[in-house]
Write a structure and sequence with these properties.
The chain is an all-alpha fold. The protein is built from two helices and no strands.
Length: 160
């Protein structure tokens, strides 16, 4: 066995491998540890990025809900304001119509009063003219003058 070349080659190989095994093993394990640490850091970074993305997504969703709610509030307020303005416009329109109707009625009433006064004035003129004609035809001069003086004296009391 000690005389065999194969034995000594095998023993040299085993010693060589044993001598190189520890530094190579430490080197390989160090590289593997570095690779594990790198992967761990990348995983942690990916987790942080995922959490940030989820946080950002949640923030955007909250903002979107807030914006939608605000838009709904603005829309509701605009509808209420439009309804209020419509009701106010109708009230104003009714007020204007009522005022114009009142003005028209007053104008008609005033025209009626003026027409009535004009008719009375013409009736008085006709009555006076008729009375004057009748008196002129039936009365002599002295009686006529006495009646005219009496009618003139009574005229202010009868007109008012």
């Amino acid at each position: 066995m000690f005389e065999s070349l194969f034995f000594w080659e095998a023993l040299a190989f085993v010693i060589f491998v044993a001598a190189l095994f520890k530094p190579v093993r430490n080197k390989v394990l160090g590289l593997l540890d570095q690779r594990i640490e790198t992967i761990r850091n990348e995983i942690e970074a990916a987790e942080r990025l995922r959490e940030e993305a989820q946080s950002t997504l949640a923030s955007f969703q909250r903002k979107q809900r807030d914006v939608i709610q605000e838009a709904e509030n603005i829309l509701a307020h605009a509808k209420e304001e439009a309804t209020r303005l419509q009701e106010q416009g109708l009230k104003d329109l009714e007020t204007v119509f009522a005022r114009r109707q009142r003005m028209a009625e007053e104008s008609i009433h005033q025209a009626e009063l003026e027409a009535e006064q004009e008719i009375r004035g013409r009736a008085v003129e006709l009555a006076v003219a008729s009375a004057a004609k009748v008196l002129a035809d039936n009365l002599d001069g002295s009686k006529a003058n006495a009646l005219i003086d009496q009618a003139t004296a009574e005229l202010p009391a009868k007109l008012h």
